[in-house]
Structures are given as structure tokens and as C-alpha cells.
Amino acid sequence: MCKDVIDTLHDYGFGVIQLPCPETLYLGVQRWWCTKYLYDNPGFRKYCRELSKHPVDYMENYEQIGYKTVAVLGCNGSPTCGVTLTSFSEDWGGKPKALDFESTLVEGAGVFMEELKKEIETRGLKVPPFYGLNLDEESKSLEDIIKEFREFLAEQIVEE
Hints:
Order of helices and strands: HHHHEEEHEH
Number of domains: 1
Largest sheet: 2 strands, parallel
Mean pLDDT: 90
Oligomer: single chain
Helix content: 40-55%
Strand order of the largest sheet: 1-4
Number of helices: 6
Radius of gyration: 16 Å
Distance between the termini: 27 Å
């Protein structure tokens, strides 16, 4: 949890529903690091598709009473929850080995974010903007990351 993100959402009057972490639920907290290359398989996609149903149930119920889902927040760099940046390497597999995580980052969405978006579309709901928080971006301070996030949220209010 990043308190600055939660505080920012609170400042704008937004509520939060935390998405499940497919990696933790599937493999546990003490799993080896993986990239999208390993998670992008039929069994794990099916698992993510099932997990996506609950948050979309919330979205659908909220929409019925006039609430708007302003955004879906993901964690960029994640092989499952990345929005615009995910990790991908064909070298990660088999016997665990130390590799440079930064070298695995590529443009694209993680498996869970892809399946979540498909579930929203399947139900005919308006797809909210997906925003990838770059909390691990070493070239930016947390202050700069939160500033960009605030700008994104301000745009969402204007569009209402």
C-alpha cells in the first residue's frame, strides 16, 4: 500500500475497491519472480478471468445506482497488474536464477489487466481509463509520481 496514493484518492473524494493480486493468490507470497512470459498460459488466464468477475460485479452494481468507476489502477512493471508496462523475458523459467528485473520491462499490459478489461467489455459496461502507477520507477521521485497521478485524477473529474 502506498499511503500517498490513498491520500490522493481521498483528497479527490474517491472510494477504493482493492483488486485481488492474482500472483499472490495463485502462488503465494514467497513465490519466485516471474514475467508475463510464464504467466501467459491458458490455465493462469482462466484463473485471472475468474478473479476479474468480482470487481466487475462491483462496477456493474455501482453503475446501476449511478456511481461511476473513475479508473482502474494497476502496478506498472507487474506481469499481471501492469497497465502500460509489464515484465517479459523468455530467460526466466526453469531453475531460479538472478536476472536484472529492469531489463525485462516492456510496453504492454499484464495478464490480469487484459482479462479485467475483457470482462468489463463482455458485460457491456463503459471501460474506465486504466492507469498504471509507476511506483518502482527509479528515475522519478514519489513526489513526481504522485503529481502525475493527481493530474490524471483531475482529468477524470473534468470528464464527468
